[in-house]
Amino acid sequence: MGYPQVFLHGGSTWAEEASLDFSDNSNPLGPPPQVEEALSHAAELGVYRRFPAHLAEETLREYEGVEVTVFNGATEALLYALLDLKPRRIAVPWPSYGDYLRIAQLLGVETVRFPPWRLEVLKPGDVVVLANPNNPLGYHWPRDVVLDYADQVRRRGARLLVDESFLDFVRGETAAPDLPVVKSYGKFLAAPGLRLGALLYRHKAPPPWRINSLADYAVYTAGAAALRRHREKTLQYLDLEKPRFEAAIRKCVAYVPSAVHFYTVIGPPPPRVKTRPLGDKGVQGFRVSLKSPAANDVLINAICRNI
Question: Are 46 and 176 in contact (CB under 8 A)?
Answer without folding.
Answer: no
